[in-house]
Design a protein that fits this description.
The strands form five sheets. The chain has a six-stranded mixed β-sheet with strand order 5-6-7-3-8-9, sandwiched between helices. The chain is an alpha/beta fold. Helix 4 runs antiparallel to helix 6, helix 9 (240-250) packs across helix 17 and helix 20 runs antiparallel to helix 21 (577-608). The chain starts with a strand and ends with a helix. Helices cover 42% and strands 21% of the residues.
């Protein structure tokens, strides 16, 4: 395995903080490395050092002769007056690059919805990010250094990028180093992890980079093992790493499929670790606080003006969606499909053109917005004071925590807890606003992209906090790991006005999107109207099919709820053999009906689009 680049006894100090101290690392051909660590630890600085965009204070950075290194920086520097085509391909003619299958794949994955002749100055931040990433991926680099490449990508885009990088660097041709907080992406792509520790306790010491074999799941296991070995009290066992490890072992098979993940060691570590959430207990608490009715969206249609103002676009078309006490729903969808609009419909900030939203009498809704502007008026307060203004102590997971303890639990060290709100980073503001909402004791929580700007350890702390929260939860996020970790069910907006239940989770959503892409490609290649023997469904047929899809999905939801109740009843009468047999028969009947409905759904969904 050829050596490509490395750090030799590198040290770097910024101001009074030592980011890296006597760090030596090597990157060999075929490696795919994920970089994690606290915000501000020096992850981006490490990439710039590896690319020789920044010089160390001591030590040296070595590159193999003729090495071609590409760096995606967090700062997009795309000059105005340049088209997307020029940014990605320079002066190359279309026929020169379109013959390359890899370049065509990059176009389809990142630029498919963009006009290549548009000026980059007219693009949104997310579009500029995709253009910058595409410009890097079409080049022939030996080493790619990517700083937060999944920012502004939806779930589908993240899945495409993971597959692209696996194929590109899976055969030993080059190497990849990626900084990201997307834990699903890390586990899907990376074969090794580097943990950047940053300076210790805010002093001048520290700045190590610890290597770990395997992806994110293996990294969590190794850290948990190290913590276990270092523990001197039983309290050390009750930590976030072990709880997250338990989730990884109980979650989707992809979480633990890597051979480097030592299953026996993992089983020993989590043998007595309870599930992340006691769903039945939380459901009972939620029912007591909320009553039977929470939020019912009934036959709702919402339309918004088109960008040119000449017409309107239907975001939600005759949608029915019921949220009960203790439901934990994840919401995914293509950009612009109406996810944020749906949240605003639940809060009452958006009124439907038709249909209605019914709210239970005891419902108290709180929303974590994407931009967290709610904290602007509190800029002169200290972080801990913001939480104390809402409540000085609150119950979390059956334990009473003070405002200071809550702030510390979400990663605010003592000195940061005393920092003025206006001086906090974006990630710190997001954490603080989430705490502020939770201590206000809402019983319905709507989270719009809650993982932005948060590092992996902080994300684990947020998830731990949400585990003990008994209300109704709706999460809009492109973070697949978070959705699967804190939500019990997924729903999707595919851009056609319909809201679809996803019994198969995010993977089912991706398959639906792939099927839609294939259908579009077939339609584009089909002969002109009248040239074939088939006829496209009429608008009336499509609308009828969509209503049938909605009906089937409502019935599937009721079946899922009935199955949950049956399982709870079976657990309660586990020693009564006759009762268990009777309940098991009911469960099998429901399962048979569910299978039949899922087959009907697949057939009708083809017509509904």
């Amino acid at each position: 395995m050829a050596h490509l680049l490395g750090l030799d006894a590198v040290s770097l100090t910024v101001g009074t903080r030592t980011l890296l101290e006597d760090v030596s690392l090597g990157l060999d051909d075929g490696l795919r490395v994920g970089v994690v660590g606290p915000n501000g630890a020096g992850k981006s600085t490490l990439l710039r050092l590896l690319a020789r965009r920044q010089a160390p204070d001591a030590g040296r950075v070595t590159h193999a002769g003729g090495l071609r290194v590409g760096l995606l920086d967090q700062r997009d520097e795309l000059p105005g007056g340049t088209t997307i085509r020029q940014t990605v391909h320079g002066t190359d003619e279309t026929h020169e690059w379109a013959r390359d299958a890899r370049i065509r794949a990059v176009h389809a994955g990142l630029l498919g919805d963009l006009d290549l002749d548009a000026d980059v100055a007219t693009l949104s931040g997310g579009q500029r990010r995709r253009v910058a990433l595409a410009a890097l991926l079409v080049e022939d680099h030996d080493v790619l250094l990517l700083d937060e490449p999944t920012n502004h990508l939806d779930v589908e885009g993240v899945a495409w990028l993971a597959e692209h990088l696996q194929e590109r660097f899976g055969g030993g041709s080059g190497a990849l180093v990626v900084v990201t907080h997307d834990r699903w992406f890390l586990d899907a792509v990376c074969t090794r992890m580097w943990e950047v520790t940053g300076s210790r306790h805010g002093d001048r010491r520290g700045g190590a980079v610890r290597p770990y074999e395997g992806g994110y799941a293996a990294y969590v296991l190794a850290r948990a093992e190290r913590a276990r070995q270092a523990a001197v009290t039983a309290e050390k066992r009750d930590n976030l790493l072990r709880k997250e490890l338990a989730w990884l072992r109980r979650g989707a098979p992809a979480r633990t499929s890597k051979p480097r993940f030592r299953l026996d060691a993992a089983a020993a570590l989590i043998a007595d670790e309870p599930p992340p959430r006691d769903s039945l207990e939380l459901a009972r608490t939620a029912t007591a606080r909320l009553g039977k009715q929470v939020l019912d969206v009934e036959d709702v249609t919402v339309a918004v003006p088109t960008s040119d103002g000449a017409g309107e676009r239907v975001l939600l078309d005759d949608v029915t969606w019921r949220l009960g006490p203790g439901d934990r729903f994840g919401l995914v969808g293509v950009n612009g499909a109406g996810k944020t609009t749906l949240l605003r419909l639940l809060t009452g900030d958006v009124r439907p053109r038709s249909g209605r939203v019914r709210r239970g009498k005891t419902v108290v809704v709180a929303t974590l917005s994407q931009d967290v502007t709610e904290l602007d008026e509190l800029g002169g307060l200290r972080a801990v004071e913001v939480v104390e203004r809402e409540r000085r102590a609150t119950q979390v997971g059956g334990k009473e925590l003070t405002a200071a303890q809550l702030v510390e639990r979400l990663g605010f060290a003592r000195e940061r807890a005393q920092t003025l709100v206006r001086d906090l980073s974006g990630g710190e503001r997001r954490r603080l606003q989430l705490l502020r909402l939770l201590v206000g004791e809402p019983n319905v929580l709507l989270l719009d992209e809650p993982t932005n700007d948060l590092d992996t350890d902080t994300l684990a702390a947020v998830e731990d906090l949400l585990d003990g929260w008994p209300g109704t939860l709706v999460v809009v996020s492109h973070d697949r790991y978070l959705l699967e970790r804190v939500c019990d069910r997924q729903w999707a907006l595919l851009g056609d006005g319909a809201l679809r239940d996803l019994p198969g989770g995010v993977e089912q959503y991706l398959e639906l999107r792939r099927a839609a892409t294939r259908s579009t490609a077939v339609a584009d290649d089909a002969p002109a109207a009248g040239a074939d023997d088939g006829a496209a469904p009429s608008q009336a047929e499509v609308r009828a099919a969509r209503k049938e899809v909605a009906r089937i999905e409502r019935r599937l939801q009721r079946i899922a709820e009935a199955e949950d109740r049956l399982h709870a009843r079976m657990a309660a009468v586990a020693t009564d053999h006759a009762a268990v047999l009777e309940l098991d028969a009911e469960a099998r009947a429901l399962a048979a009906e569910r299978e039949q409905l899922e087959e009907e759904w697949l057939q009708v969904a083809e017509v509904a689009g």
